[in-house]
Amino acid sequence: MTRANEAWESLMRAYAVLMKRFNAEDVWGDLTMREYDVLYTLSKCDGPLRMSELNRHVLLSQPALSRMVDRLVDRGLVVRCPDPGDRRGVRLSLTPDGRKVQREIGLPHARSVTRALNVLTPQELEQLAAITAKLAGNEEK
Amino acid sequence: MTRANEAWESLMRAYAVLMKRFNAEDVWGDLTMREYDVLYTLSKCDGPLRMSELNRHVLLSQPALSRMVDRLVDRGLVVRCPDPGDRRGVRLSLTPDGRKVQREIGLPHARSVTRALNVLTPQELEQLAAITAKLAGNEEK
DNA sequence: TTAGAGTAGATGCAAACGCATAGAACTTGA
DNA sequence: TCAAGTTCTATGCGTTTGCATCTACTCTAA
Q1: Which of A23, B31, B67, B115 has its C-alpha lying 20 to 30 A from A96's C-alpha?
Q2: Is the separation of the CB atoms in A13 and B57 below 8 Å?
């Protein structure tokens, strides 16, 4: 077992443990964590986002995301607009209501995250952010 | 946005990016990644594992895990035995066939993992493993 | 300009999921 | 010793997921 494999396994475990803990917290209202993830991603990007863009950030198949957006549109949290530059495409953005819901959930959740990660020293937080960014950024085959 | 939140977001992104990449690789045979995760967890622990133990490591609800084990038993990869010490419980272990399947998939997958994580320096790998272990280990409220 | 290849997103359908809950076995305290 | 509470796994049921495929649009090159 290489160091790389050990590191990956450790990362997976940390992810699983923390996700379970966050999921168990009573802050999600009537959203699932996955739905929140979509709202959050949309809230971060000011401009409207393409479906395919969004799909790169969310751990969900393209059809599943498409239907999830359906539901979020039905619930009035997201709007689908045609993309003027590419008529196949769709531009997604939050409605005011969607933005409000995202903020209301995001606040307590962000606090949980802070609490959970504060077992690390400031230096470790820095290192973790840098290392994982490097990992995610490496897109070449 | 605190450092902690940035670090967590970065970790989530890395996890999503790598999981998508691994999932896209053609090494899973007729298993899903989640099913492989169960076989892998069982393969690591020599002794039989309790359902609830297993559930701590896998990102899946308890009922979903229960049914997934059903399917793996049906496919002859896992065996369910009664726990002599606790008659509510169940002890899970791999069949020889399950062990074989795990190894056959695990080998190429481990190579992918190594390739993906080798963009990091040995020191960074070390740090990543240590930091994520610290994160996962912190179980108190 | 247009045929063929490629890309974006939606949809049919079976499989898998989560929530609520059941049932059976342990534990605790009166 | 036994009632009340807890823990472990399984099951009913409605919802969500992924795979395969479809349609519509864009891009490329002859």
Answers
A1: A23
A2: yes
Q: State which residue of chain B sits closest to A59, comparing Cα positions.
A: B16
Q: Which of A23, A32, A136, A34 has the alpha carbon at shortest distance from B7?
A: A136
Q: Which of B20, B119, B132 is closest, CB to CB, to A11?
A: B132
| Both tokens assigned to A96 | 């005011």
Q: How far apart are CA A109 and CA A115, in angstroms?
A: 10
**pLDDT in single tens digits along all 141 residues of chain B:** 899 999 999 999 999 999 999 999 999 999 999 999 999 999 999 789 999 999 999 999 999 999 999 999 999 999 999 999 999 999 999 999 999 999 999 999 999 999 999 999 999 999 999 999 999 984 433
Which residue type is seen at A24?
A
Q: CB-CB: which of B18, B128, B134 is closest to A119?
A: B134
For residues A44 and B17, what is the distance between their CA atoms, to the nearest angstrom?
18
